Amino acid sequence: MVISLKDSLKLFGIMIVVFCAVFVCTFFLNFYLDAIAFKDSVLPDQQALYDAQLATAKVVCAISGGFLALIAVVMVIFYIKLYIDGHMQQLGILKAMGWSNSRIAIRFWVFGLSVLIGAALGFGAGHIAMPFIYNGLTIDSLDIEINFHWSLLVWLVVVPSALYSLLSCGFAYLALRCTANDMLKGRTEIKLKKRKGKPAKSGKDRSFLIETCLKTLGEKKLLVFFVAFACFCFSSMVQMGASMKQLSTETMGLMILIIGIVLAVTTMFMAVTSLIKSNLKNISMMKVFGYSVKECALSVFGGFVPFAFLGFAVGTAYQYGLLSLMVNIVYKDIGGMPDYSFNIPVFFITLACFIVLYGAVMVVYSFKLSKVSVKEVMLEN
After folding, report:
1. What pLDDT score does 71 carry?
2. What's the CA gap between 317 and 315, in Å, rounded?
3. Which partner from 78, 196, 228, 331 sits 20 to 30 angstroms from 222, CA to CA?
4. What letters, b where the CB count within 10 A reaches 16 and e where it falls short, cover 29-63?
5. What are the tens digits of pLDDT across the range 219-257?
6. In which element (H, E) is residue 195 found?
7. Integer CA distances (angstroms), 7 to 118, 211, 253, 354, in order
8. Whole-angstrom Cα distance, residue 123 to residue 24?
9. How far is 35 from 123, CA to CA, in rounded Å?
10. How far apart are CA 18 and CA 76, in angstroms?
11. Which stretches within the chain are classed as H helix?
12. What is the pLDDT of residue 360?
């Protein structure tokens, strides 16, 4: 089994997420290791700031790096499931020819290459950005030099790539645990026993559009998460980037702003394109029965709107909590630190931008729905 260039391009989202995680962790951990060497040279009046900066490096890496690493895990699983669903018959033929699950699954190590590329680029970009970051973090009279640490290369590039390759093979092995006959027929879902309880509410009294919208949400729970995560990134990073000008440096604020926008655009693009692709047949049938483009768009995208605003709200709370933690706990003993409070003007500006941009995305993809050819969809199926 060979993963084509087209399939590899779908892994671009993983590369972006891993790039951002490794990029942030590289210069903060590198600064931490370089600053530790000056532990005995710190003057008493500098000790509080020194300890705070080391704490900042650890907290940011633990929260941001760990969270993005978890998102990358979810994205790897999502992409592997998409690949298996799109190549069920080819994989079924291999199983019918006598290939074992482990023999097929081991070929999925290729998915780890996206992590390797993203981590390597993030590591390199982190070193390029280090001089600017060090200027904002170093303490007066302490000339902290930039040193290359091989241990970081191993732990931030080599180890994650190996772990994600193992994860890819392991999840693929679990996903392939069905018969070759089922795969050739296009059935790969493992049947679960139904819980005993109250019967599901009948949808007879609901309109067809509402029923379709609810069904889309029920079948695409992972895409709900990605939409909410994209809005979370936009909300938290934009507001945090705007506040960094007051609390840190403009360079740090701009960097956080760019990372947030890139993550938001990447995950939203991945979620919406996957959603449209999985609903092409439903959309084409609705168009046959005379439903308008607006109605088709509402049935596909409408249910995701509340989760988009939920992601925005959680992102707002996250950035406020994180900055409050840094100012009121990590830097509490540092004199001259400005007071931090919730920035209401920035919140409303960010909210207005979010509504405009999210609405623009929905309009653009609604226009894309209008271009869906019923004939082409039917021929593909």
Report:
1. 81
2. 5
3. 196
4. bbbbebbeebeeebeeeeeebbebbbebbebbbee
5. 777 888 888 988 998 998 888 888 766 666 666 777 778
6. none
7. 16, 32, 35, 31
8. 9
9. 19
10. 11
11. 5-9, 12-36, 47-60, 66-86, 88-96, 101-105, 112-137, 150-153, 159-175, 180-184, 208-219, 221-247, 250-278, 280-288, 293-301, 305-325, 344-370, 374-380
12. 87
Instruction: Give pLDDT tens digits for 93-137.
Output: 888 888 888 888 888 888 888 889 989 999 999 899 888 777 766
* Single-letter amino acid code for the residue at 142: L
Q: Which amino acid is at 255?
A: M
Instruction: Please give the C-alpha separations between residue 368 and each of 215, 275, 328, 372, in angstroms, as whole numbers.
Output: 21, 12, 48, 7
Asked if 57 contacts 148 with a C-beta cutoff of 8 angstroms, the reply is no
Closest CA to 220 of 264, 276, 175: 276
Hey, what are 139's tokens?
A: 């303490």
89: closest CA among 198, 182, 227, 197? 182
Please name the amino acid found at residue 233. Answer: C
Residue-wise pLDDT for 174-184, tens only, equals 888 887 777 77
Average pLDDT of the residues in 257-275: 83
Output the CA–CA distances (angstroms, integers) from residue 84 to 81, 217, 278, 357, in the order listed.
5, 21, 14, 33
Reply yes or no on whether the pLDDT at 305 is more than 60.
yes
Nearest alpha carbon to residue 138 among 46, 65, 63: 46
- Hey, which of 57-66, 134-143, 307-316 has the most confident mean pLDDT? 307-316
